[in-house]
Amino acid sequence: MPEGPEIWRAADTIKDAITGKKAESVFFAFEELKPYEEKLKGLKVESVTPRGKAILTSFEGDLNIYSHNQLYGKWIVSEDGEEPDNNRSLRLAIHTGEEAAFLYSASEIEILKDDEVEQHSYIQKLGPDVVHPDTTYEQVLQQYQSDDFKNRKLATLLLDQGFLSGLGNYLRSEIMFCAGIHPDYRPVDCREEQIKKLAKYSLELPRRSYETKGLVTSDDLIEALKREGATRKEYRFYVYGREGKPCYKCGRDIKVKKTGGRKIYYCENEQSANDKD
């Protein structure tokens, strides 16, 4: 599933292509949305906004298209308006003359009026967005310190969009590694300094991934690994997807365990479970 940085980049691409332009045609694959094809035709696209892992495409008037990529959804923008050749199922298309935006494989698409947006079941529960430039360190720290979350295992908590929106499977592994926190810890198990590190990296890593198109590791490490002939896949992450490979900090093998049915990657040495107060 795309995480916050990927959704923000997708929203940027869609926004650049269709914002400020009138929709010459709109296509919905779902029958219940077909009546809106004519209602949206001729309306100007006013904004394209990421909301957690969803995207809100707003039109002049009072209508918004809410879409959530879920596991397999993918947006593709066409500069010439022609649908790209692929074997995915087209769910939504917005044509604005020369350019068009296509959404494939997503099953969660709705039409919302302006006053319904903030009451949407997904949007209303979202925690602070870790990619949004207005989200502050203090807001994120407050989430980690909240009684509502302090007794939940971090490996599960970091996937909860009501805690911090935009985080997902690769980011949780990277955040916990950089903060030096074992996957079995809860916020209540962490020292104050560890909580501060979690808050710090919960903002820094998603924003770095957004700015670098998916890179989480530091520039210095990337350059060193490039000199050794490493591929992008090898230098993109510190631990995610690197089971059995050496930790970039200590050289020990990266481990993997399943929690909540999903894999989390970590270094036993750098993320020791033996330093609780």
UniProtKB/TrEMBL annotation:
InterPro entries the record matches: FPG_cat, FPG_N, H2TH_FPG, Ribosomal_uS13-like_H2TH, Znf_DNA_glyclase/AP_lyase
Protein name, entry field: DNA-(apurinic or apyrimidinic site) lyase
The protein's enzyme class: lyase
GO molecular function: class I DNA-(apurinic or apyrimidinic site) endonuclease activity; damaged DNA binding; oxidized pyrimidine nucleobase lesion DNA N-glycosylase activity; zinc ion binding
Gene3D superfamilies in alphabetical order: 1.10.8.50, MutM-like, N-terminal (3.20.190.10)
Domain FPG-type per the UniProt entry, residue ranges: 238-272
Family note: Belongs to the FPG family.
Alphabetical GO biological process terms: base-excision repair
Keywords, alphabetical: DNA damage, DNA repair, DNA-binding, Endonuclease, Glycosidase, Hydrolase, Lyase, Metal-binding, Multifunctional enzyme, Nuclease, Zinc, Zinc-finger
EC identifiers of the protein: 4.2.99.18
Positions of the Formamidopyrimidine-DNA glycosylase catalytic domain: 2-93
